[in-house]
Write the structure tokens for this entry.
Amino acid sequence: MILILAWRNIWRNKRRSLITLSSIAFAVLFATMMMSMQYGSFEQLIDNSVKFYTGHFQIQNPDYWQNKTLNNSMTYSNDLLKDLDQNEGVKAVSPRIESFALAAYGTITKATMVLGIEPAREDQIIGLTSKLKKGKMITTESDGILIGTGLAEYLNIGLDDTLVLISQGYHGVNAAGLFVIEGILKFPNPMQDKGLICMPLKKAQWFYGMENRLTSLSILLKDHKLLPEVMSAANSLIDKENQQTIDWRAMTPELLQLAEIKYASTDIMTRILYAVIGFGMFGTFLMMTAERMREIGVMLAIGMKRKLLQTITFVEVFMLSALGVGAGLIMSLVIILYLHYNPIELGSTYNEIAEAYGIEMVIDFSMKGFVFYSQALAIIIITLILSFYPLIIINRTKPVDAIREG
Amino acid sequence: MLFKIAWKNVWRSRGRSLVVIGSIIVGVWALLFGTGFMNGFMVGYMANIIDHDISNIQIHNPEFKKDYDVKYWIKDGKKKAEAMREWEGVRGATTRIIVSGMISSPKKASGVQIRGIDLENESKVTSLDSIINEGTYFEGIKRNPIIIGSKLAENLSVKLRSKVVLTFNDGHGNITAGAFRIVGIVKSSSIAISETYAFVRQEDLTKLIDLGDVVHEIAILTEPQIEEATIVAQYHKMFNNDLAESWREIAPELAVMDEMYGSMLYVLMGIILTALIFGIVNTMLMAVLERFRELGMLMAVGMNKVRVYLMILVETVFLGIVGAPLGLLVGWLTIYYYRINGVDLSNYSEGLESFGYASILYPYVDTNVYFIVTIGVIITTVIAALYPAWKAVKLKPVEALHKL
């Protein structure tokens, strides 16, 4: 009965209901767009940064982070690798050996960073194939290495030339070897471009004399939100005596700092937006009530209980807000879907620099479900709070005055 | 005549007008506060790095930046800095000796950039004295005082008055060492300051590097409204052979962030403005449609359509003119209040605090933003009135009179 009355009330005055409905729908649209954009840029920040090098978290020897030497490397088992691979939240696991070596070709030498990797795995984290400029990718079994264009230029070395690497290996072993250049990579970051050498993990283990040891296992997740879950799963897999987990927060504190600032700013800007749309919706509610004063007066005069009238009005508002939120969600889904695949590009004089630091100069829109439902919920709550206004008016109205005024 | 009717119309239905005025006030307030806030975030973040670390402009010997080799000092660096202090737009200029080396405590050692600073001018340029968390700014210890960052102190597990040893190559390539006593500990969100710098008196370092009275870096703080490029150009004109760079060149990642934030701000403001338009359109639409009868009557007695259209527009503009200054006032008051008291962000994160990033944020807004926002909101209001006014004109007088 109440439902039917409320439903009919809505359609009795289509124009009025449509205006209220659209104000709610647009409120949802704006709130989701804002949230999607803010959250998108937040995710973009973290994604770019973890893919740049560290991964979301790493498994290391407990002493490695403080003192990065090969003596603080760890042993690992293929079971650990397999278990991590099978974890639902994990996108990629990459075993690494990170160390330094002196690279020499002809009469030129340079201190370089050596990264021993399983190429197919590492490709999913820092992305090697897409950076390949000349030559071919290395495989797990190959003997060759990949170097940056900057380093190749500095050493004046080309494809198929042989590079000499000299370093100190595990427990002070002498490390020296000849390596054929199989490919040349273009890293956007000048530091990596001028000084990074990638070689197959097996080769690096041989070179540094550390069979079956790693300096770190880098893990990239499908979503940064899964970090606590996957990390605790990883914690139960590792051998606590010789291994520990360390997340991006600890590895890149400057990123955490930025992320925290972003989080706080998102929250405050969202509240400001709520104030604006809340007021917009309040306007339509107020007008809606004012228009219906006469009707309310008549209803009360012919003996309708205030409580009942209030219930009907509340149900009406609730239906309107549900419809409005539904419509708003559909609109925002379409618009955000478009923006997600066609992000707004920021024309910039800094494009090259941005690229070097792994920042994309685009405004990204997030398609995460929570963006939509959190905002839909927020708007429904705002609407319900605002709906107290007509309810209070109904409570106060004196039938005679109301009929006269109308 | 039209204005008079419009003005009277505005006040005839007070409730309705107040809602529109209210949403304009909220709109102006939101734009001001939002801008102030984002500025506060950005300035809070960047200022820590630019003001306390990089400064607006740095000058080096072009060779120096390659490996920070002590051999490449700035010719007549002190005299140049002296001269620049007199320039228009320069607030301060300070000289530094920069040496890379090792700092060791009895427990641990760590790499460090040793900065020999000119105490008086350094505090003018980077306000180093203002970020001292413990201890003093080179007071109380006579022989070889040193200031280090809080993170570095933690890493070395040293406290105030602890002794540390600096080891580095002097100007002739010999390894030298000097014992220093910690006089102060600084805290900053800048990782460079809190982890990698050690500040000592210039004269102490001059003796140790044994190259005579040389400096490696001049850092310049400019007046806020001055473009760094003009000072850089002036410098290059007067002294050649040196490399003068603004912070945008020294820390391009900050410049990128600055630009990203700027564009984000525009988009955010765009969303708020559009939300405002919709709020006003909806309210005005209801307001106009509610007045069917009245508008129909006006048309029936011979008011032409153009005039009805203009009347509604003028009404809206009046609402804007009343609302905008009030919004400005409220916005200004809020910002003024928070400028003094600050917005406490500590419940958002303990993380920020631990970096020495002030968890209290001070929003600020440039004066011209007030004008832009006011004009923007008034234009928004007019745009928002166009559709309802057009709707009103489309009424047929007879039908309108019949309705209701």
Observations:
- The first strand of chain A starts at residue 57 and ends at 60.
